[in-house]
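Q: Predict the assembly, please.
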Amino acid sequence: MPTRTKMQIGKGDGDFRPTAVPPMDPIAKAVHLRAPVTDGMKEHFAPTDVSPGLEVTRFKPIANLVRSRKFQFFLILPNQIIFWLVIFLGLAGTVVPGLNFGTAITWYVWFALVFVMMVVVGRAWCSMCPFGGFAEWIQRASFWKRTQKALGLGIKLPESLAQYGLLFSVGMFLLLTWIEEFFNIAGPGVPHETSYMVIGIVSSALLFFLVFERRTFCRYFCPLTAVIGTVGTMGSVAGFRTKDRDVCVECKTKDCMRGGENGYGCPWYTWPGSADSNLTCGLCSECYKACPSDNVGLFLQRPLTSLVAPRRRRPDVAWAVAGLLGLVLFQQINATSAYTTLDGALNKVMSFPQYPNPIDYLGIIGAITAALGGIGWLMSRAFARRDLVFTGGGRTFIDKTSKFRAYFVPMMYGLVPVTGADYFARQLPKALKHASRLVPSVAAWFGDGSTKSYLYNYRILSNPHIVLTQLVVVGLGLVGSVWATWRISGRELAPISAKPLAARFAVEAMALATGGAILFLYVIMHAAS
Amino acid sequence: MTFTLDSTMRDLHGAAPKVTILVDRCAGCQECVVRCPTAALSMDTGNWVAKADQSLCVGCRQCVRTCPFSAIEVEGAMMVGPRAETSYRHPTNLLGDAGEIREGILTLEAAVAEASRCLECPDPTCVRGCPVHNDIPGFLHALREEDLDQAQQVLRRTSVLPDICSRVCDQAVQCEGSCSWSLAGGQPVAIGALERFIADNSEIPPAERVSEAAEGLEVAVVGSGPAGIGAAWELVQAGAKVTVYEKQDQPGGLLRWGIPDFTLPSEVAMRPWDQLMEAGVELRCGEEVHPDRLSELLEHNDAVVLAQGAGVPMRPPVPGTDLDGVMDATQFLTRSYAALERHQGMDELRVAAGSKVRPPKVLVLGGGNTAMDVARSARRLGASAMCVDWMDRRFAPVRPDELTEAEAEGVVVKFSTTLAALEGEQGRVAYAKLSHTRQESAKEKPEVIEGSIETEPVDLVVMAMGYRNDPEFSPVLPGTPIRKEVKPLPDRQWTASGLLANPAPDFARHMPVGKLALGRDGALSKAALPFGDRCWAAGDALVGPSTVVEAMAQGRRAGHAIIARHPQRPARTAEPQPPSSTRRVLIAYESRSGNTKAVAGRLQEALNPISAEVTCLPLNRVGAAELAEADLLVLGTWVEGFVVARVGPAKATKAWLAQLPRMAGVEVALFCTYGVDPKGTLAAMRKPLEAKGARVVAEAAFGRRDVEITLAELLGRLVRQPGTGGVKVARRS
Ligand code: SF4
Ligand code: SF4
Ligand code: SF4
Ligand code: SF4
Ligand code: SF4
Ligand code: SF4
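A: Predicted assembly structure:
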């Protein structure tokens, strides 16, 4: 029989009340919850735990702001307005892409800004995202109020799918990028295509929000969530975390998960009590509002902490990094003349109308991903200690363990900074050449914008300078990767390798080679243009 | 003992349960781990997610119900043996037989075997489902150890009527419907039968005095039914002098004549009264207390508990109910009870039969509990009986066991049938015109099918369509019967227990057991709040027609509140007031930036040494239960609004005040913390409080700079003896 420990009556504040007459709380007397497991808890979370000094919500004005239920609404609102404008102007505005506000803001400014936010903050975009934001308003039937009834079916994503974590998102991102390349939407191309794309995202978000519970869409399917999640782990915001884990472990209500008086249960399936990275915190602040013990805070952390520190490694993140790296490398390779020849030939054979041929698109990305996997496999065979058993984990994709995974997964985490930098560098030319077009595109509403105006043709940086900037950005990413790989391999690969130092150097070499390849491709791309 | 699984049980059930933890979504919160009855769940401390030992899992699915992130799934059979069949007695000759029909569990072995089906759940949902919150795993544990006295003692902590409740409770929608096995879709532990086994097979202890807490209190209880018994028991055990007024010439109320002997034998029904009288409770039978006598009672007693029940029968709005030979269930049951007890026929039936050779035909209007009791009593008195109910058989709120028993005893039960009119011959009822109804779902009201009337010859008609509260009591019990509501955001610990996650299990006839239980619990905590200065209400008088067990629980709760509050009648207040050191203070605050909370903390510190007890809680955690335990409520809020416009108490405070329960007799001190100007904040708080009967004794507004002075002044007011009226100490800087 379970040990009968007296249940703490959930009155909080430790105010146990002695009374003259015995208090009548027969339920509390009959409840005898098991003691929660705490062995190993401290050790598990020590590397990722935030320091109280870095709590942003320590400052009262910030705390009041974040506690307000309207806080997220007002973060979402401006983006909401802009994105409906994008849709509207894309369909009804000028057809000159550079002069259409919809295309100009989306492709010159927004994409680059989202990347900056990812690298600096993490999921800042998710907290203000108009797609999920819009769908969530409808799901909750409320703009900001805490309501108790959800619209829609509220189905939970079955285990058979949920085990693949971020991989659906990678798939969606690949699909979207292919569509975008095929129609040259991001070029930017014809403005109404941007509108259709945005409408497509909003309506699929809405569909998912109405079928599944909480932010299943954001956690698993949103085309951006894998990119933001993985690249965001470099960010300096740790997210909403528990202030005192012991309080959370003893907490009898878990309002932050189930929803409480003033806040919803975490829409992202994250528990502040066990969050060890910012990967799945959408910074929505619901847990902060819901916790009756005021035990949640918004914390800062040193850059790259969420990348190097967590003890729990996720294979979906590793494969997502490999796939995303494959995609961004494809986007560099496609600027080479060798690729143009290949694509042209393939299209002719298949009678496919134009670039990019889906076979070479998926083929190249797949090949890069497979190559990364192959390197991981070789490393595991070369270095793993023979006296260790690597199997014995779970049965599902997410919790299986193997010798291969023991090397591949940490290795891929190490590549996040250089991958992120590469994505960012790819966005730079558009932003650095054309961001100023935002002004004439706004003027265009009043019939005042012109492709001849000064700002339309203004270049923030010249082409050679842009390439240089790209190289510097990727270089910085590479430095980050080298450092992260060194730290990660020291903690995770050294103990399982027969030759620890050799293993660490080998993965470092791989990180360097990846960075080198990216840099090399930028030089070639420049030469090609 | 540890719950073990033997392999034979696995064979018996086919597919063993399989637990799957969705490691992607599992946050390692351990809500499932702390509640798994078999310790099948533990933590994978490497990844900080839950992990399962499949061989220990019994498939009770509590983990599924309690996981906040729906990150755990269980498939496969439930590893539990078949539920014990309790025996029934089928009388071969029904005529005049008033013996008990249900026999319960007969042997200790059988009882222990059934008790072993209990998992002793760490968060037992059955306890929440039981209206008195009996510690079910606790008494079943003792029973398994074959320690019946210990089991009895566990029961007595919460119930003074275990022998009665176990016979009359509708367990399917209470304890058993809320049992883990039932929530998982299986057959629950036979809690009711086991409770009865314990109550019947061990000594029921007398109502001895156990404390001096109510020494010197004199309390009048109106009504001697289960609510009155609960209140009297609680009070007499604490040393109070209790007088019970009963309008009938025998005590027991519904227990005695309302529930026939074949369900609840008289010896069992009278047991509590024998014990209460032995304990010195004064019983005044044949004295009906009208509402206008209340003030007189209050004059001579320190407190009054109104537990007169809800005894006004409902009548169908059809012609002919004033004919001779039409009576209501109360009349019928009282007389049939007497007739069966004396082994005689019943006069009304004899008159109804007249000179006919066939047995008299009794038509019972209604298909619920009471209707079945009437019909079955009629059968025992030699009549034929037919019940008509306008609900569809599928949706009628009737207990299946009672329906089966009634039908086995020859009662004809017609659902989807309603009375259109009664017709008489020479002023005496002779025919009933019955219409058919149609009902497609439980939610919709049955609809009468036009032109479907058939005529049925009848000799006696009994109206058993239910009861309602006596409107004469409305002025003294405003707001009754109170509704058993569930707030949109239910109590967080109830949610955490998982009881609300399976809204309507099969076993509970698809009734929402969790919601029902929570509603009952809300009403129960309201039984602690007085109406007017020293008047409490419990049982059907408080909540409308309900159950025996609820009435008893509310009676006890009211009794407990009286002991805790220790009210005194005016004639006595000339005696010195109790010093403030016996006062229990509740400080409730609504704080945003922490200023109000800080002031509340300071007050707590200051009041602590001079009060019996000081509790400090955020406003959203203060409900009826907390209020009931306080003699002085100190209510604090921050001031909302822009410098000049819409200044007032915080929205949350206003919302809280709007849903305030009765506050009669509670002293209240108000304070607010403001930045610029509190304006009418305190007045806005005072009004709703006074409307509910509270007495505001002090008010204070705390500005930024004058906290210390204001605090001192407010404390000055609060340390003085209560009863000096409201004094404003608001300071404006
Ligand atoms: S954050 Fe708050 S609500 Fe959530 S587990 Fe911790 S103490 Fe409980
Ligand atoms: S509820 Fe808390 S943990 Fe969950 S996404 Fe929002 S801020 Fe992050
Ligand atoms: S089904 Fe019951 S026994 Fe099995 S793991 Fe869940 S809680 Fe434990
Ligand atoms: S209750 Fe759910 S989220 Fe919490 S530890 Fe169990 S499976 Fe994981
Ligand atoms: S009192 Fe009634 S509901 Fe409670 S345990 Fe006993 S039989 Fe069940
Ligand atoms: S009776 Fe049912 S719910 Fe109650 S402790 Fe036993 S198994 Fe659990």
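Confidence is low (pLDDT under 50) at residues 1-22 of chain A. The pocket of iron/sulfur cluster (ligand 2) is lined by residues A 239-240, 266, 268, 270, 272, 281-287 (CB under 6 Å).
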